[in-house]
Amino acid sequence: MNHPQPDRPRSLRMDPRDNVAIVVNAGGLREGAQLEGGLTLTEPVPEAHKFALNDLPQGAPIIRYGVTIGYATRAIQRGSWVHEGLITLPEAPALDSLPLATETPKPQPPLEGYTFQGYRNPDGTAGTKNILAISTTVQCVSSSVEYAIRRIKAELLPRYPNVDDVVAITHNYGCGVAINAPGAEIPIRTLGNLALNPNLGGEPLVVSLGCEKMQPSRMLPASKLPVLREESYVMRFQDEEYRGFGDIIAAIMQMAEKRLDRLNQRRRVTCPASDLVVGLQCGGSDAFSGATANPAVGFASDLLVRAGATVMFSEVTEVRDAIDLLTARAADESVARELVRQMHWYDAYLGRGDADRSANPTPGNKEGGLANIVEKSLGSIAKAGTSAITGVFGPGERVTKKGLIFAATPASDFICGTLQLAASMNMHIFTTGRGTPYGLAMAPVIKVASRTELAQRWPDLIDLDAGRIATGHATIEEIGWELFRMVLEVASGNQQTWADHWGLHNDFALFNPAPVT
Amino acid sequence: MNHPQPDRPRSLRMDPRDNVAIVVNAGGLREGAQLEGGLTLTEPVPEAHKFALNDLPQGAPIIRYGVTIGYATRAIQRGSWVHEGLITLPEAPALDSLPLATETPKPQPPLEGYTFQGYRNPDGTAGTKNILAISTTVQCVSSSVEYAIRRIKAELLPRYPNVDDVVAITHNYGCGVAINAPGAEIPIRTLGNLALNPNLGGEPLVVSLGCEKMQPSRMLPASKLPVLREESYVMRFQDEEYRGFGDIIAAIMQMAEKRLDRLNQRRRVTCPASDLVVGLQCGGSDAFSGATANPAVGFASDLLVRAGATVMFSEVTEVRDAIDLLTARAADESVARELVRQMHWYDAYLGRGDADRSANPTPGNKEGGLANIVEKSLGSIAKAGTSAITGVFGPGERVTKKGLIFAATPASDFICGTLQLAASMNMHIFTTGRGTPYGLAMAPVIKVASRTELAQRWPDLIDLDAGRIATGHATIEEIGWELFRMVLEVASGNQQTWADHWGLHNDFALFNPAPVT
Ligand SMILES: [Ca+2]
Ligand SMILES: [Ca+2]
Ligand SMILES: [Ca+2]
Ligand SMILES: [Ca+2]
Ligand SMILES: [Ca+2]
């Protein structure tokens, strides 16, 4: 590892074909700054923003990651700032003429012998935490279940030291919704599959009001797990045996205690890295996300895939504009076609609501140097590494394959995280450029910063500084390996993430494309 | 008040024109049961379900509340059970030929001299509670703000005994949403107006991440309140002055303490009843809701309107099928036309999502005896009493008129409650037949049971038993006056609701008709 001087003008170019690079230095660079290779900036360029490596005539393609991210709206001089206003937005790739599995990557050599200490579940999956969750079928019971959980944590949990946490799966679904409308299957299966997340030990407990539209048997049929056929797992507020709130809370606590007792008997055992189901996501991205954090995550993703794990990437709206690169990388044509089907579904969903493609990236993304959704997509896809895509799953579906998976979700951070948990995620990697205190109760979240400035400003929120790639203090490979090892340590309970340290655990956020009533 | 024998077969007919009545007795009535007026049941009829008062030929209208709720699918004998399967669903009233202000009720005599002890706000409104709320512009900061509030409650609130509570206005909006799509104005104005609710003392505090789509100035422009132009009301996580999570939390706590200090200096003063903004809602309805609780609330609603208050009813999907009765009752044609416009908007919203009208009522409603949405609508509208409708407001708009207002919202309980809070509700009346532990942090919720059995089974959740109307222990007028007096007592802080006693306060639930991205 070399230690370059921090003040030297530095830039990052992602691919030899690129005709732009980004400025690395905090605070940006002044007019006249001399970059590697003898290039001189003709005007000030903000940090993380692009400048031209050559003279670009009007209409010339702007190339980053070896891909055209748009066209020059006017002639751009070598060394000048290539800002959002100078780049046209290309059309999204048409979905009817995409390359299907035309460039499927060859499998990389397997990585043997990597393990973590996890909780083995009856269904063969493994947990990285040992959590009791209480599911709810309807919003009406949310605050009561939260009341019960406050009491469980105060009165019961101290007696069950091997149980990590008690979590309420609350939401605004279950009644007052068009439950038979197209799309309603998404929130329903999401809630059912959340209860089956590997970090919950196969011990679902469902609290129902009684008169709601989404009945417990619809959300989580007993056929889903052997234990559900043997033991009552549903508590209904409106059952006539409960005389008042005291009785209701006592009943929930009693059912919770049975499960706490069994969960408490579990111990961590050695599990192969192939038991990991790692969800990848980004939020609050900047131009460094796609240059430092996401490529490093991509390297770790390849390592995880080589170790036999499941790695999920998601966020339809952030991959849509580079979907041609993904369909080409599919393991086979049927996987590619399923990718296309998910893009079609989402195009139609956005079209029904008259949503505007240019709404993503956010103002913050743009201020951070991302010109448009194409550039953001390329940076986002960098998280997925270079493996073949072996499977595609719809929003809220449980992922049942190993390898690199596309789990279709919105990009909205907590909706994506909730859907990845339903997909059976037991470890989460989250990259951020602008910075966010993101965290989830059900799985550990490793937050990777794209810039050293952010990692240093938020030392008690950011778990890994990938900004060292930009400053030359580390390579993509080095950070990738560091992250891979951190995943195993966190999954084993040997290292705590900052989100878990502070208890920063957002509520679940459902994706419900159907109307409320 | 008379005290009839509990075991005598009893029934309720709502209007002299009705050809059905409902069974009142708990557990229903047996075949052969003899009812008042010499009618004999020809088969068992469940509690709250309808039976025929006359022989009804096939195709005959089934009349309840003096209104046709459907037609007999086959001949029905006098004294037999008129269940859901025997009633066709009539078409929803067409929106292009409704009576507009054709039967505007005359104003009833004013009720003078009724007051409550409330908190006077700078903008002229009055609070029934004295709450510090912390608004958020984006989901990313929710769990951090909740962390800050736990510390504020533990470390600061004990020193400010006149402040009732500290509440986080969290949500899943702000980023990852199509913020310029049609309908996006609804969640945005909802969040802005929530911060202006009269129970929050005009002291908004907004926590922002920094890079989110919905910037603080869009959610709550400083022009909304004089105080916002004088003092900083926005805290941004990503501001460079904050070094880590500790700094961020300290900054939120410091801004909170300034507001706690000012709120703590407030005292309750005598306010006229006309300062009340009472939101009406029902949830978990049964056939008794429309026969006991809702008519009693309707009577109280008329009293409140006579006392000069604002009374809001809502729940578009529950009034849609009886909208002709409401447009006729509008104070003038422009109010009636605005009602029609809101119905049109919602019809289109449901149509875009292919939602099925028969999805409401819920299975629980039907089991409780409500045959269809028409019958449910008539029972729901009973809450609105008999006054003229003086104003109509869209979802999340701030209500600025006195009298009986239709505030258009979905029927989904917490979405409706959240929108009514945004509309400036400072008191909430919630009727329930099947039973729900509904509660909100921002305004007191009086829960009215439609049945004595529920009120007795849940004595520590139900605030008022309107079931006494069915059993003959009280009249609609008596319960209506009791509720009116209870509203004044609760608004004055002299009586605590059960929801407040247990702290059953659901999270806010936004209505976002636009897509997520
Ligand atoms: Ca994002
Ligand atoms: Ca995201
Ligand atoms: Ca919550
Ligand atoms: Ca309802
Ligand atoms: Ca409702």
Describe the structure.
Chains A, B: Its EC number is 4.2.1.42. Chains A, B: Residues 100-119 are annotated as: Disordered. The structure is a homodimer of 517-residue chains. In chain A, helix 8 runs antiparallel to helix 9 (333-352). Chain A is globular and about 80 Å long. In chain A, the strands form 5 sheets. In chain A, strands 15-16-14-13-17-18-19 form a 7-stranded parallel sheet, with helices on both faces. Chain A contains 15 helices and 19 strands. Chain A is an alpha/beta fold and 517 residues long. The model of chain A has no long low-confidence stretch (mean pLDDT 94). The relative contact order of chain A is 0.15. Bound molecules: calcium ion (CA) (5 copies). One calcium ion binds next to loops of chain A.
User: What's the helical proportion of residues of chain A?
Assistant: 25-40%
Number of beta strands of chain A:
19
Tally of helical segments of chain A: 15
Low-confidence stretches of chain A: none
Strand order of the largest sheet of chain A: 15-16-14-13-17-18-19
The most extensive interface between chains reads: A-B, 83 and 83 residues
**Biggest sheet descriptor of chain A:** 7 strands, parallel
Q: Could you tell me the mean pLDDT of chain A?
A: 94
Indicate the radius of gyration of chain A in whole angstroms.
24 Å
- Distance from first to last alpha carbon of chain A: 59 Å
Shape of chain A: globular
DSSP strand content of chain A: 15-25%
Please give the oligomerization state of what you see: homodimer
- Number of separate structural domains of chain A: 3
Which structural category do the helix and sheet elements of chain A fall into? alpha/beta
Ligand kinds: calcium ion
Region (Disordered) (chains A, B): 100-119
Organism (chains A, B): Edaphobacter acidisoli
Enzyme class (chains A, B): lyase
Pfam families (chains A, B): GD_AH_C, GD_AH_second
